[in-house]
Write a structure and sequence with these properties.
Chain A is an alpha/beta fold. Helices cover 33% and strands 10% of the residues of chain A. In chain A, helix 2 runs antiparallel to helix 6 (141-157) and helix 3 (43-51) crosses helix 6 (141-157). Chain B is α+β, with helices and mostly antiparallel strands. In chain B, the strands form four sheets. In chain B, strands 1-2-5-4-3 form a five-stranded mixed β-sheet. In chain B, strands 6-7 form a two-stranded parallel sheet. Chain B has a two-stranded antiparallel sheet with strand order 8-9. In chain B, strand 1 and strand 2 (26-28) form a beta hairpin. The chains are: A alpha/beta, B alpha+beta. Chain A binds chain B through residues 83-84, 86-87, 90-91, 112, 114-122, 126-128, 169-170, 172, 175, 177, and chain B through 129-131, 136, 138, 143-148, 152-154, 157, 159-163, 165-171, 173-175.
Chain lengths: 181, 204
């Protein structure tokens, strides 16, 4: 009697896993988030601690800090953004390759923090689209790790092809600001 | 080492007057004599280090601006404060000390940036903290702490993001600590917490 195979036979067809493109792409992305430190003030010290051996962000896929925006996926804005520095933050953000994410670390980067003054930008979300905000002044490294894990969750829920759609450069909505609002 | 005292300086420079001071010796010097006085201070009195250059805005008083200089003698370990009134209230100016102390260069740029005092003869009198096109001098008394709305320094970034330099939301502030009592009860607070940006200030 003929043996008829109806199920998938790995001996014949090789090791294949059937899944969705989103699931695979997002799985790759979220486990290889390479952060770029935008260290502007004391938060950068906690950021360094989070990258160091005691807290070790690399355990969660933020494998290496990249000091070039070309090689980074996630900009961690750690510190007070002055109006004079805002231009630099925006330009570095623009130099990062898509897909890219931004974490506003600490009170200053999120809202201006205690600097209610003429020189300080009242939240970096005015110039770049922020994915995760971290409270604290400065936040503990654990808080940053938590934020990065939250960011991974967020990446996992995204449509992997969202960045392939053409962006209209001029409109602030398309340039990314207010993306999540 | 003998401490420097006012009589010693007055003997040499009769245009000096003594200035009220809570710490070390302080003198008033007319601005046109400043360079001459500081040259002698450096060369003969041993004040070889310029520690700080700043200024005071007296608001409604005239003269409105007073330039302040702190000198240190690294051999005698003495400080001296020299104050010089700016003759002009509208366009305050002082002679530069760049020719005497290299440290004066950046200090004077900072004072120019934040107070708007021009230092005559300065080799590079540009803003040092705020960006070059910034129209105000933020430490003057008539400048609000929150700031004044102006465009962002980079026009293309401003156009893309629609962001601008805004007056910071003060939410009833400035926030000050009462200063006495345990730290847990002296957190900085606004003097008037009855209003915020979203809740109108109550009118009587």
């Amino acid at each position: 009697m003929d043996q008829k195979t109806v199920a998938y036979d790995s001996k014949v067809e090789g090791d294949v896993i059937v899944t969705q493109a989103d699931a695979v792409i997002n799985w790759i992305r979220k486990n290889s988030v390479w952060p770029m430190p935008m260290g502007l003030a004391c938060c950068a010290i906690e950021l360094m601690a989070a990258g160091g051996s005691r807290f070790d962000m690399a355990r969660f896929g933020m494998e290496v800090m990249r000091f070039s925006p070309r090689q980074a996926d996630c900009m961690i804005v750690a510190g007070t953004v002055t109006y004079k520095m805002a231009e630099v933050v925006r330009r570095i953000y623009e130099q990062m390759a898509d897909p890219k994410w931004v974490v506003a670390m600490g009170a200053c980067a999120s809202t201006g923090g205690m600097y209610r003054s003429y020189a300080t930008m009242q939240g970096v979300d005015r110039i770049v689209p922020v994915d995760v905000y971290v409270s604290g002044c400065p936040p503990r490294p654990e808080a940053l790790l938590d934020a990065m894990i939250k960011l991974q969750d967020k990446i996992g829920r995204e449509s992997a092809l969202k960045n392939l759609t053409a962006r209209k450069a001029a409109a602030p909505e398309a340039a990314g600001v207010g993306r999540d609002s | 080492m003998a401490e420097i005292d006012f009589a010693l300086l007055k003997e040499r420079f009769d245009y000096l007057t003594e200035r009220e001071s809570a710490d070390h010796l302080a003198v008033n010097c007319p601005s046109e004599k400043l360079v001459e006085f500081c040259t002698v201070l450096r060369d003969e009195f041993g004040f070889d280090m310029l520690v700080d250059v700043t200024a005071v805005d007296w608001d409604a008083r005239s003269p409105r601006f007073t330039g302040i200089y702190h000198f240190l003698s690294t051999s005698k370990h003495e400080y001296l404060r020299v104050a010089a009134d700016c003759p002009d209230d509208i366009n305050p100016a002082l002679p530069t000390l760049c020719g005497l102390y290299a440290a004066a260069n950046w200090h004077e740029r900072e004072t120019f940036d934040l107070m708007g005092i021009r230092y005559e003869g300065h080799p590079n009198l540009r803003r040092i903290l705020m960006w070059d096109a910034y129209p105000y001098h933020p430490l003057r008394k008539d400048f609000p702490l929150a700031g004044i709305e102006v465009p962002l320094p980079a026009a293309d970034v401003a156009e893309q993001t629609k962001a601008s330099v805004i007056a910071a939301p003060m939410m009833g502030g400035p926030f000050v600590s009462s200063g006495d009592g345990p730290m847990s009860q002296t957190e900085p607070r606004a003097r008037d917490e009855s209003w915020t940006e979203t809740k109108e200030k109550p009118t009587d």
